[in-house]
Specification:
Layout (H helix, E strand, L loop, with lengths): L2 H28 L11 H15 L4 H15 L3 H25 L7 H10 L6 H9 L4 H34 L24
């Protein structure tokens, strides 16, 4: 691959990740699902982050999208809430990247594994609240009991978002838009075209 081709690929992937980061920020500002359930905002976040990983196969793409979404919110003048988005989505993206790191290159051919990772990646979103409550002197068991419903609900929405991303990625793979040439196929050896995977 020539240097010009690599540069073009890097630019294309960067633009894809920035575009998805814009959608993550937009989902925080504009998307309000009438579900009356805690954690439902994680569905589009995990969906877009998993989709970004499939389209680019770039390591640390989740953390990049989460942090970029936070910066976009800050640029729009979101104040404290934007900082909260920056830390929480950045941590979620980082968790997703770390989970991908231990399972690549099998992840793109194991839909159920992506669903599990999507659920687990939502856990860091409650860390700041746990630390705040611990510093306030609350008992750890009380904190876990109070946060369990929200955590479980967030994990369920994260799993749904990852499942939707996997299905869309399989459809895009058939048209050659996904960085993994055998995305969604259960047979054959693991093959990837991703740099750094």
């Amino acid at each position: 691959m020539s240097p010009d081709t690599r540069k073009h690929d890097h630019l294309r992937e960067a633009l894809i990740l920035v575009f998805l980061a814009v959608l993550i920020a937009a989902s925080k500002v504009t998307l309000r699902l009438p579900l009356k359930m805690p954690g439902h905002g994680l569905l589009p976040i995990i969906f877009l982050m998993c989709l970004g990983r499939a389209l680019t196969a770039r390591p640390w793409s989740g953390a990049f999208m989460g942090c970029a979404a936070g910066l976009i919110c800050l640029a729009l003048g979101g104040g404290f809430k934007a900082v909260e988005v920056f830390t929480k989505y950045g941590l979620v993206g980082l968790a997703l990247d770390l989970l991908f790191k231990v399972s690549d290159p099998l992840l793109h051919r194991r839909g159920w594994l992506l669903v599990v990772w999507g659920a687990l990646a939502t856990l860091p979103r409650g860390f700041d609240g746990w630390i705040r409550d611990l510093l306030a002197g609350m008992d750890i068991l009380v904190i876990l009991a109070m946060s369990a419903p929200k955590l479980l609900s967030g994990m369920a929405f994260g799993a749904v978002g990852a499942a939707l991303a996997y299905q869309l990625s399989k459809a895009l793979a058939r048209r050659g838009y996904v960085a993994y040439p055998d995305f969604g196929r259960s047979s054959g050896g693991p093959q990837t075209t991703a740099a750094g995977s």
